[in-house]
UniProtKB/TrEMBL annotation:
Start and end residues of each stretch annotated as Disordered: 425-458
Species of the source: Streptomyces dysideae
Lineage per the UniProt record: Bacteria, Bacillati, Actinomycetota, Actinomycetes, Kitasatosporales
One cellular component (GO) term of this entry: membrane
Subcellular location: Membrane
Official protein name in the record: MFS transporter permease
Keywords, in A-Z order: Membrane, Transmembrane, Transmembrane helix
Length: 458
């Protein structure tokens, strides 16, 4: 599996990986909390399950990024799929709190493993085929659109399946009775997601070709990962453009925390009941994913109209921030007009974030060498998660009303303003890229005599 793929084939396989990875997680969005409740879990326990997921993902984010740069993209992606397979199975079938908590922790580990390897594989493949100046934004945009489409489809399907099972004559009750309560109607989306994870692992192992990497011993892995992680952190410290990408990710995390924490309560207040509010929230989440997918698809056009990738990020984040500020401005008002403006604001948030992502990552990939690419993506993801967690804690103590929305909007607007000062986009010299352990660097040498020239991201 060492042959070089052409760009169209690499793009198609990258999109397929995005769909197969995110569809199972989309299937779990709507039924997850209801399934925990149906299993008799109190809200405190449910909060603990989600904390296990978040803390595990945050703790493993950087080490697993380094793991991808040392062992290879395909190996780590397959491991992420296996962890998600185990997690969805435990969550779907588990009845004891410790099993459900373990399932959520494994899901967090799978999330950490998955943040970066697929995208790093795509960029490596394209640049091996066409050189370091290859066009990346279109493929990254289509991958983002595919991710959003998979999440939207999974959210709708995951919410509809338990409802459809309830339409038949005691079909759901018979399912529970025949499995002694092990499989509930709300479990079915999780088990379907587990089946998709099997397909994901098989596809990754058979379709993602990589340059040959030297066999890695445990000592090599343990020695190579810390050096790779330190290289990624140092890059953000000394490269102004990469630092802006990381800070923008944190600003996006603040916006997402605000909208995801505040929208369910606002939907329930609008409909007058938590059950109907949950249905409205599922529809809004699906619409948000669709808007993000449209924004991602429009990212290349946005960059052309804006004149550069950096201006495109500024415009996109500014549009997203205006949407969140619009949500804040309408939070204290009722009426049809306010609802319409709030819906427009909600769509703008996701549309802008979707449009900003491919341009941000295009800039990042042209700044980071292949040997540290997945690590840089993990640093970006970690920035988003940490700022999102901090914003969530602050929102929890703020009074209800416009203020929590305006907090997220203000932080995101600050992220957009970071891009006013334009910096050059020429690739840094090899010395400016992260220098991980030599094992990581040598893994790219089969692409050419000068791996830094062959794999420099930007």
């Amino acid at each position: 599996m060492t042959g070089t793929l052409d760009i169209r084939t690499a793009r198609r396989r990258y999109i397929t990986v995005c769909v197969l990875f995110w569809l199972p997680l989309g299937l779990s969005i709507a039924p997850l909390i209801l399934l925990f409740t149906e299993r008799g879990m109190p809200m405190a326990a449910i909060a603990g399950f989600f904390a296990a997921h978040s803390l595990t993902a945050a703790a493993l984010e950087l080490p697993t990024g380094g793991l991808s740069d040392v062992l290879g993209r395909r190996t780590v992606l397959a491991a992420a799929g296996l962890l998600n397979l185990a997690a969805l199975t435990l969550v779907g079938l588990g009845t004891a709190p410790w099993l459900l908590g373990l399932g959520m922790a494994l899901m967090g580990a799978g999330r950490a493993l998955s943040s970066g390897p697929a995208e790093a594989w795509y960029v490596d493949t394209v640049q091996t085929h066409s050189g370091p100046d290859a066009e990346l934004r279109t493929g990254l945009a289509r991958g983002g659109s595919a991710t959003s489409a998979a999440l939207a489809t999974g959210t709708l399907l995951g919410g509809a399946l338990p409802w459809l099972l309830g339409l038949g004559p005691d079909l759901g009750a018979r399912l529970s009775e025949s499995t002694s309560g092990l499989v509930l109607p709300l479990s079915v989306p999780m088990l379907l997601g587990a089946a998709v994870e099997i397909a994901f692992v098989l596809y990754v192992l058979t379709a993602l070709r990589e340059p040959h990497r030297p066999a890695a011993t445990l000592r090599d892995v343990l020695r190579g990962i810390p050096a790779t992680v330190v290289g990624g952190l140092r890059l953000g410290g000394r490269d102004a453009l990469v630092r802006r990408v990381f800070l923008s990710a944190g600003a996006a995390g603040s916006a997402l925390a605000a909208i995801e924490l505040l929208t369910p309560g606002r939907a329930a207040a609008l409909t007058g009941a938590s059950e109907s509010g949950a249905v409205l929230f599922a529809a809004l989440a699906c619409a948000g994913f669709i808007c993000a997918g449209i924004g991602s698809h429009l990212a290349p056009l946005t960059a052309r109209l804006a004149g550069s990738g950096e201006r495109a990020v500024m415009v996109s984040l500014g549009a997203s921030a205006s949407g969140l500020l619009l949500l804040g401005a309408t939070a204290a008002f009722a009426g049809v007009g306010s609802m319409v403006l709030a819906a427009v604001g909600y769509g703008l948030v996701y549309l802008g974030l979707g449009a900003a992502g491919p341009s941000e990552n295009d800039l990042l990939h042209r700044r980071v060498a292949s040997s540290g690419r997945a690590t840089a993506l993990s640093v970006q993801s970690l920035a988003l998660q940490l700022v999102a967690a901090l914003t969530g804690l602050i929102i929890g103590v703020l009074p209800s009303g416009p203020l929590p929305w305006l907090l997220g909007g203000t932080v995101l607007l600050a992220g957009a303003l970071l891009w006013i000062r334009r910096s050059g986009t020429r690739p840094p010299t090899p010395a400016a890229t992260p220098q991980p352990h030599t094992m990581s660097s040598s893994s790219t040498s089969t692409a050419g005599s000068d791996p830094h020239q062959q794999h420099a991201d930007q």
